[in-house]
Amino acid sequence: MDLGLKGRRALVCAASRGLGRGIAAALAAEGVSLVLNARGAAALDATAAELRAAHGVPVVTVAGDITDAEARAAVLAVADDPDILITNAGGPPPGSWCDWSRDDLDRAVGANMLTPVLLMQACLPAMIARGWGRVVNVTSSSVRAPIPELGLSNMARTGLTGAVAGIARQVAAHGVTVNNLLPGRHATDRIAALDQARASADGISEDEVRARARAGNPTGQDGDPADFGAVAAFLCSRQARFIVGQNILVDGGGVALTM
What we know:
By secondary structure, the protein is an alpha/beta fold.
């Protein structure tokens, strides 16, 4: 299927590895030119080189913490009003609600709610003026089924979900769609770090943590970031123009819902 994306330009955040890289690769395969952002310059540049070689599309990198105002301004200056915006950021660390400090709360909300909103505020006006645009926010399955030990993430990402519900319906008439993509457990560095924390807390091996988690999923396995990226690319397609303000689970059926 031709997704109708060739020649479009995308800004992809947290793109050096994991789900962000999976999305960047899927867009590049469709002929989309890329501006990639992540904090680590070396991994970001390596990813960019691989995508250029594999797909022959222009790929520019801007290393920096997208949650920082100055770094965000630098990224947006290079992205220059992209057609596609992919917001994505690692979640805050696990922990108990009784241990959260004000700084913990501010960091979680800043990274996982306010930064995506600020990026949308920066990019949506030009999309509206062109009459075409796509925004995909990578959030978490926890906005549908909260994960107790990830309370900071539950809180911040659910706030973003509420914001998007209104924003998406205000811009849809201009040919711009905004949707959220909710990953479950995928083979990423984030999941590896959470597995390590769980193993330490429970006094078991990381292999046992992984085995238990996979056994609890109907597929019996972890998701592949490349497959996740393909779903995101479809949400950016011309065929997805009637998908507006949705929260789409990509979790192997791990969250049991009827609607």
